């Protein structure tokens, strides 16, 4: 891997591995609870070729789909590249052909017009289908059993938007899938597409409206009444792109906004609420209604959390000085004010998870990763350059109610929640973790926690014989749904 740039984007846990293969049975330590039966799909960025731009970033890496299958107390692992149009073009050429992150004007002329998305961010499961997503393009559908790529997906020709978010929301009662696309009609545009998919997987609604400005809109939320579209001042300019510049520039002096649309209504009724200047959010915990108000809980930072974006923006805030926290924006739908009420409700962190059954509803528990300031130094890796050293359990009524800090030289990644059928049982969290043994020497494991008692640490683990790459995001699919799926 010596040909890759020696930057944080390609070192530590970000070092390219490019492993495709199958491990039929992992070594188990402890006993996996009998109710944990299913597939943990992960979207893994791992570049197939050395970039030809020195300032390339992890987010440009080719997407891989990783499946960790847990069945009858045994664990297997399979990993394959998603054969996007971009992957195919570079595979045939035997070298990298695409330039700067999300800037087609820096590509090799031979791939002009080729779909640039790498499908490396989130695996999405809905209506028995598996999609690999990245917000700069449409999803790619993948066979959940063979991991074969089935092609770019436009909902049988129904989707007009050029993009689909990596963060969909599925209503736990109606089983509808809600998603959006930003820059929906082209690079650096303000256009947002708001889409609804029925329980059978058919796109039944697509509406478009404009944001106050073009924004990196990585996530959004639904409540029972509304769809909420956060807009933060990380923006794009088509003239900068044409000059070969960065896709994203963050503005510390610009207002942030949230657009609120009636969930089953018209985007013409969008209402915009203003928030603090210069802040940024990548991930949202949840949203829910309370009378005439709607609350949205988010992992907010005082600037963009990605160091390469701050560098491109001329912002000199070091990562360890980047303030923020878990915040709640309250939007008064019955009032006349356009100002959001903003309150800090928890410590900083990111990659939050709630129970699927709580999506869009008041929730009793959320889990998210953080850096324990009194814990071991974090390992190098991930889009922000450092990996989590702790997992927190958060109750909106009581605050942090539990936590687990990893041992020295370890990192823990975003968990998925596995529900239990036992009344009063909070289920489990399943996550991958890494241990650093020495320079460029790591081991990987699967850790299982009791969701109501994460402070006890992992109650069982599975050891990978090969090092695996951390995912960006993951998705849990119950075994019955996985086995019933037809490609």
UniProtKB/TrEMBL annotation:
Binding site for Fe cation: 167, 218, 283, 473
EC number(s) from the headed UniProt entry: 1.13.11.-
Protein name (record): Dioxygenase
GO biological process: carotene catabolic process
One Pfam family per UniProt: RPE65
Family: Belongs to the carotenoid oxygenase family.
Co-factor: note: Binds 1 Fe(2+) ion per subunit.
């Amino acid at each position: 891997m010596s040909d890759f740039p020696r930057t944080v984007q390609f070192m530590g846990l970000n070092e390219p591995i490019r492993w495709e293969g199958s491990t039929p049975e992992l070594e188990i330590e402890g006993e996996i609870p009998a109710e944990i039966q299913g597939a943990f799909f992960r979207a893994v960025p791992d570049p197939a070729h050395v970039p030809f731009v020195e300032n390339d970033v992890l987010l440009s890496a080719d997407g891989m789909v990783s499946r960790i299958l847990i069945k009858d107390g045994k664990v297997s692992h399979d990993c394959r590249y998603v054969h996007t149009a971009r992957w195919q073009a570079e595979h045939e050429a035997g070298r990298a052909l695409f330039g700067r992150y999300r800037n087609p004007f820096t590509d090799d002329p031979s791939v002009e017009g080729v779909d640039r998305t790498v499908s490396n961010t989130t695996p999405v499961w809905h209506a028995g289908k598996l999609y690999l997503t990245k917000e700069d393009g449409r999803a790619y559908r993948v066979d959940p059993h063979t991991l074969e790529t089935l092609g770019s997906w436009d909902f049988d020709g129904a989707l007009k938007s050029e993009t689909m978010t990596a963060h969909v929301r599925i209503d736990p009662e109606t089983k509808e899938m809600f998603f959006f696309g930003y820059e929906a009609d082209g690079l650096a545009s303000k256009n947002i597409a708001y889409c609804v998919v029925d329980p059978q997987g058919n796109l039944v609604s697509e509406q478009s409206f404009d944001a106050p400005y073009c924004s990196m809109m990585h996530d959004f939320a639904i409540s029972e009444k509304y769809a909420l579209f956060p807009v933060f001042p990380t923006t794009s300019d088509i003239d900068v792109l044409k000059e070969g510049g960065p896709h994203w520039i963050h503005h510390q002096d610009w207002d942030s906004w949230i657009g609120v649309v009636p969930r089953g209504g018209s985007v013409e009724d969008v209402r915009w609420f203003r928030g603090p200047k210069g802040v940024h959010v990548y991930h949202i915990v949840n949203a829910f209604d309370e009378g005439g108000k709607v609350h949205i809980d988010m992992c907010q930072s005082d600037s963009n959390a990605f160091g390469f974006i701050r560098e491109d923006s001329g912002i000199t805030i070091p990562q360890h000085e980047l303030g923020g926290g878990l915040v709640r924006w309250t939007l008064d739908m019955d009032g006349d004010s356009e100002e959001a009420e903003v309150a800090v409700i928890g410590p900083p962190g990111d990659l939050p998870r709630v129970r699927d059954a709580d999506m869009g509803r008041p929730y009793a528990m959320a889990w998210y990763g953080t850096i324990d300031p009194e814990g071991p130094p974090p390992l190098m890796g991930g889009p922000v350059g450092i990996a989590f050293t702790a997992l927190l359990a958060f109750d909106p009524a009581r605050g942090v109610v539990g936590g687990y800090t990893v041992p020295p030289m370890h990192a823990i990644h975003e968990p998925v929640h596995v529900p239990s059928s036992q009344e009063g049982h909070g289920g489990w969290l399943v996550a991958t973790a890494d241990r650093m043994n020495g320079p460029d020497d790591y081991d990987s494991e699967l850790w299982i926690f009791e969701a109501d008692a994460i402070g006890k640490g992992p109650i069982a683990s599975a050891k990978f014989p090969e090092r695996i790459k951390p995912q960006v995001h993951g998705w849990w699919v119950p075994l019955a749904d996985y086995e019933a799926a037809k490609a």
